[in-house]
């Protein structure tokens, strides 16, 4: 703003005493032809005068001119703004007439002029008091990346009050200087400063500096900035190489068999062509000989043989040259881009690791309850996914009555545990305890229960997905750089998984219930002889595993769709996690979740376009893994291991 005020003061002081102050209309009348019939080559002088005038009414005029709202009134030659049926004065903005009965000539700037107007508007808007307009101007510069924007953008940084926008301007100035700074030293310095920026637009600027074009010549052009030397037959096909020679006018074109035939037909005289009887031209070699005779007489172009093509390729060099002629600049750009690509590769590996860790924490939460029930009781519970679904729906119902999302999640976690714990105990008392040591019947029974629970959920909540909204403090993501980022919800689930790991380890290692569970797991007969009731332990264990699945459902529902079928998406992975990790082992489940999560993300990274194939490869790998280690990563002794 200070710069604009100084410019306005200079204009004011330049006016002679007694002269009329400069107006927008006076500037437009000076360049009346350019306003009435604007052209890209002639409009620059008018735009420069408007910028130099620093008149506040220049901005609305430029916006109206760009939008083709400027007209010239023929009776007095004044330029006015046509808005609806009114004519507005360009200096005051007041209505001074109507379009009715007025002879008007519309100014219609073409696309090139409108782009030039847009560039000038950006210069005005960079120091506009409204931050939204300044942000729009910076966005426009980022899209166009034109050398004319470097100076006004750099000049606007000092007066920028918003710290975030100032940082954007400074970064954008660095990108512009790398491409358009006036001296080689300034460009190299700017390029070197980009070596730590992993953003896509930075890589785009460096790649633009390193853009190449193909070339061919008898010898390398003096002073050219060669990027690579191409060898025909290796770096490009011999046909493509010879085509480059033809396009460059360095070799005659290859005559195709059809063109040979057409030339022979066009030169038949007395049943002969090239001194040969037409009847003898039944082979390709005979036609080639006739064509050679015509070429020797100068009737047709010379026939290019394979030997001629090979000789032409041998006599020329093929290369890629940088469009940027300065080798120091391209060397600096290549060095910065190589450094960026190295950092990007490490960042991508870190991002893949975070994704795998996040997925592993989800699988751990989904599988830990199954690990407890399956490990202690040997029960294949196909309804485990439906307990996850019940927990998610519990969270949804809580949010219907508790509008504060933070409080609702705090309430939903223990309530989901209580609901699914009760459902698990009821299922164990009514069904499971009658089917011990009958795995096939247990599998079929729990599978039927899972279908019944899904249908019950559909009857209650419908088939549409229900929202389980996370608190606002879980919105967004933790961003490390332009490549590595992880959402706060995933971080929260990871923390929740760690809390459950510590809690379950404490319960199993430090409480009487844990001692009895471990005793029943390792030797139920001996545990019974020591006064432990295996039947009660089985009931409590099944309820505990189901309750943990309910809590997992609340966590999973924060980022996944809450539907009646959501549990089916995790039941297979949960069983794989338990089996691979080691039946009945908490740390085995943790290891299995890490292995499966990392394996799935790794396969998806190798084959991102086909997630079904990725899951297939993962299952095949697990099958092979179990062949070599059937008891899992962490094998336990006892009933579950023996089964």
Task: Describe this entry's structure for a reader.
This protein has 643 residues and is of the alpha+beta class. The protein folds into four domains: 2-125, no CATH class; 131-209, no CATH class; 212-322, no CATH class; 345-642, ABC transporter involved in vitamin B12 uptake, BtuC. The chain contains 27 helices and twelve strands. Strand 2 (79-83) and strand 3 form a beta hairpin. Helix 12 crosses helix 15 (306-314), helix 17 (384-401) runs antiparallel to helix 18 (405-430) and helix 24 packs across helix 25. The longest helix has 51 residues, at 327-377. It is extended, with a radius of gyration of 39 Å.
CA distance, first residue to last residue: 81 Å
Percentage of residues in strands: 5-15%
Q: How many discrete domains?
A: 4
CATH topology call of the largest domain: ABC transporter involved in vitamin B12 uptake, BtuC
User: Average pLDDT, to the nearest integer?
Assistant: 83
Largest sheet: 5 strands, antiparallel
CATH architecture assignment name of the largest domain: Orthogonal Bundle
> What structural class do you assign from the helix and strand content?
alpha+beta
